[in-house]
Design goal:
Chains A, B: Its cofactor is heme; heme c. The structure is a homodimer of 571-residue chains. The first copy, chain A, is mostly beta strands and 571 residues long. Chain A contains ten helices and 35 strands. The longest helix of chain A is centred in the first third of the chain and has 19 residues, at 60-78. β18 of chain A pairs antiparallel with β18 (342-348) of chain B, so a sheet runs across the interface.
Chain lengths: 571, 571
């Protein structure tokens, strides 16, 4: 398992620790680590560093190096302010008490609870382990805040609304376009779902996390990990950026207003740092209203200084966004009908809210509280928590998958980072009351590390990937279940093989996404080792290979979003 | 003006800087300083102090002494976290740039903009000035947070509800009781308004800031500067504490639920530190819901880490509290009908919200944004900002004074700390639309430093004190206007003389408060020098002395609250 020792692989997609942990039968909450890990834009932000008189000394050069490592490797789980998130707090009161030797052992060898073995995995040298042990005994430096003035300084209207096309100027079938993140290139590719050809490559922020559509389907919004938002006009002859803004230092989520009468009017983004969200003009990205998320945790009601904004969903029932705040475990229902005197309803759910999606009726938002091993069901019509369901270890649904179960009726599915199951939750309190908000079934998958499950109203299949699984046979494959015969278990499709990319042990297949018709499923395949990639298209009915899209411009394709399905929340 | 050099006088009530500034015709925004100054409970909280490698050295002993001075003298204007409030920010990036010598001059000599001359006034020695200049170049230590667990550890139900009297067990006319703060004693005195005798002295937190009544008039709530709340049952044979809780480290406000159906059900308190508010069970003070106020400032939308909760008012129109947040300048309308999934409407007003009161209809909350020289009118029925009125320098209304102006109809009055005027604002958009939300008249007072104005629906008088005025003739008197003949100017009543306390140049008279009948006005008089005090009662119609209440137990009486008027918001 030491093939990654050379560090040739981007951290985010090669979870050695999980590999080892899974192989040893250990708890794989460190999947969270690797899932979170990867270069953080905060690593390069100059921060003021005090000297803690009680801590071992550190030179300025050592501070800077350690701070960079901290934000790149550790902040994802331990927090920017080191107050703890899914990982434990690392504030000086605790770390000084532990002492350098204890900390070095922990950092070097990891722990069964999920701390990666940064030292013995080869990720950090012994000197670096010692450096980090000393660094975390110092006061955490605080990154700068980022308010309206900072946002406005980065806001650009590249093509003002009045200068944009009055009608669609191209012949593309916009609804079947796929927006594909080219992670390491800081770009997205727009791929024509009909012809399977690349329409354009567009410059964006770094490692675009998600794509979202405006309600009309004309505008595409993407947000990079660096909190840069790009707004793309699909009506242009060659679709390209019409506006951009940077809304913070690190982010994951963007969304647009979907309530009737507000189509294309507003956009919203949430940031990891600073912990806040901003509502913008949907036509220009002009920042209008910023709201901080620092507040009290669900249950214990202790103040958390760094509650990151995870997913955001737009309600179809009210002029509201639902902003999910990770460390406080609260879903904030934000009413955008009055942005000046703004009303917010705060729903306590469960800590570590992360991703989620609507149920098939679109009335309920199913959100994973990942390290709490729970899923919350938020009733968007009544503005209340309808249910809180215990599921498996570290649910990771993406937006989840809706289908009609032969026995249980409408269900929503999620895979798990921490075990090999797929949980099915009943979502129909009207006609299937006895199953609503319960885990009605748990499907067995090939092994843990599932990132995305997917289905489609027109499909009889439930798909799941497992890119964080240590076994290459699994991480390079996709499994598919027949919804009408779940007891038969899953079929495995060798997507990695079908991609035609050489078998170098480093290929990963991720994120099933349907086309508009619901008869094709698209997968991203890439190998970080030999830097080859492909998009594999499978026929949803026959389960046979339909097409392989290869293009040297497709650098590290990760998430892809079909315009129609994203616009209408079809999944 | 050097009589205070000996430091024998409590800082809060002897504003030498204002005296000198006023005498020199300077801006008296330093009235805010003295108004805020005084012992802070935070001064004694042990805090972790880092060493700033760029700053001049400081020993641990020096740190502790400087930190204490900082919280006692400086935090009121510069903030606990030194990010600035009414005073400028004092964070290391700024103070290091200024350097020790510059800072020493500033601290020693003050500035025309309102910084007191701590050195030349004799408040701080040269060594202490040097100490403080060095201290503020270090990183501000952060006081601890204070969450549910901390509150519960201090929460005591001294007499559980079931053990309390089922009917009133004494013969006092409860509605005419006065709750009087005995500031330095950490007590309140309950005084029988009919007999003018002390009913009981009750132990409370330090320097009780205000008293508030439950909707039924049975329970009295007081909050000390140290954030300790005491709940007193007036039905007991000898009224005394039945519950207590400490809700933070420093506070100013407490209130109870007044909407129909919620009488006596809930209480709320807001804190300066931590910046948050807590809603409690109105029967036992059990803490139920804590909400943080850290957020973006009105207008510039920059993050403020320490927005203190100033006044809180209870709406009669909806099940809502209005929580006024100082540094962000926002009034939060908090709906208490659902404490679990809680809805808040955030009204941007103007920075430096502080005190205020209802208009005569009780529909509008008039709140002073003091250092912005403005008053906001919050419509409690429609949940919106009805008006924002420019007034004089640093309005300080207390709860203000409502009366019917012969020309302008219903008006609300506020005095000012920074000039000698009383502003009258029209409050009747229904029948006097042209005057609503405008300053219709500005009365001339005897000199600045007015803390409280007062009137009563049954009275033809408007009263004002001026305890922060440097001229003892003024600070020891009270002025009164005839509402029907405002042009005639004010009459002066020598309350200080009437109190019978020796003339030592250190007497101050403060806070006119009516009795239930509206025919008596009560004043607190005290001399910090010879530690004598009295309560002077004046006949509202004849303007003649009616009674003087003296009792050795009346130690530093400051604010007093008539039960009936406080219960029903009569002012």
């Amino acid at each position: 398992m030491r093939i990654w020792k050379t560090g040739a692989i981007a951290a985010a997609m090669l979870p050695l620790a999980i590999a080892q942990a899974l192989a040893a039968g250990k708890d794989v909450s460190s999947a969270e680590v690797q899932y979170q890990a990867g270069s953080s834009p905060l690593a390069n932000v100059e921060m003021y560093q005090d000297i803690n008189p009680k801590a071992p000394p550190l030179t300025k050069a050592e501070f800077d190096k350690a701070r960079q490592i901290y934000f790149e490797r550790c902040a994802g789980c331990h927090g920017v302010l080191r107050k703890g998130a899914t990982g434990k707090p690392l504030t000086p009161d605790k770390t000084l008490a532990a002492g350098t030797d204890y900390l070095k052992v922990f950092i070097k060898y990891g722990s069964p609870a999920g701390m990666p073995n940064w030292g013995t995995s080869g990720e950090l040298s012994d000197d670096e382990v010692d450096l980090m042990a000393r660094y975390i005994q110092q006061t955490p430096p605080q990154p700068p805040e980022y308010g309206l003035k900072d946002m406005k300084a980065t806001w650009k209207v590249i093509v003002p609304p009045e200068a944009r096309p009055k009608k669609k100027m191209n012949n593309y079938n916009l609804e079947n376009i796929f927006s594909t993140t080219l992670r390491d290139a800081g770009e997205i590719a727009l791929i024509d779902g009909d012809t399977k050809k690349i329409i354009s490559i567009i410059k964006t922020g770094y490692a675009v996390h998600i794509s979202r559509m405006s309600a009309s389907g004309r505008y595409l919004f993407v947000i990079g990990r660096d909190a840069k938002i790009n707004m793309i006009d699909l009506w242009m002859e060659k679709p390209d950026n019409v506006a951009e803004i940077r809304v913070g230092l690190e982010a994951r989520s963007v969304e647009t207003s979907k309530f009737k009468g507000y189509e294309d009017k507003l956009a919203i983004a949430g940031t990891y740092w600073p912990p806040q969200y901003v509502i913008m003009n949907g036509d220009t990205l002009e920042p209008l209203k910023i709201m901080a998320t620092r507040g009290m945790t669900v249950g214990e009601q202790e103040f958390h200084p760094e509650p990151r904004v995870a997913s955001i969903v737009a309600s179809h029932y009210k002029p509201e966004f639902v902003v999910n705040v990770k460390e406080t475990g609260k879903s904030l229902m934000v009413n955008y009908s009055n942005l000046n005197e703004i009303t917010t309803k705060e729903i306590p759910v469960s800590k570590f809210l992360h991703d989620g999606g609507l149920d098939s009726s679109k009335r309920y938002f199913m959100v994973a509280a990942n390290q709490s091993n729970q899923v919350g069901a938020i009733d968007l019509k009544d503005g209340t928590l309808a249910g809180l369901i215990d599921v498996g270890k570290i649910p990771h649904p993406g937006r989840g998958a809706n289908f009609t179960h032969p026995k249980y009726g409408p269900v929503w599915a999620t895979g798990h980072l921490g075990d090999e199951t797929i949980a099915l939750i009943g979502t129909d309190p009207a006609k299937h009351k006895q199953y609503a908000w319960k885990m009605v079934e748990s499907l067995k998958g090939p092994g843990g590390g599932a990132l995305f499950v997917k289905s489609h109203p027109k499909s009889k299949n439930l798909w799941s990937d497992a890119p964080l699984n240590p076994d290459p046979k699994i991480s390079q494959s996709i499994v598919v279940y027949d919804i009408n015969n779940l007891a038969a278990g899953y079929k495995t499709l060798p997507i990695g093989e079908w991609s035609g990319i050489k078998d170098d042990g480093a290929k990963r297949v991720v994120q099933p996404e349907y086309n508009k018709a619901g008869d094709e499923v698209w997968f991203s395949v890439w190998s970080a080792k030999n830097k080859e990639s492909a998009i594999v298209v499978v026929d949803d009915k026959t389960l046979k290979l339909k097409a392989v899209i290869k293009d040297p411009r497709l650098i590290t394709p990760t998430g892809h979003f079909n315009v129609y399905n994203t616009q209408h929340d079809v999944y």
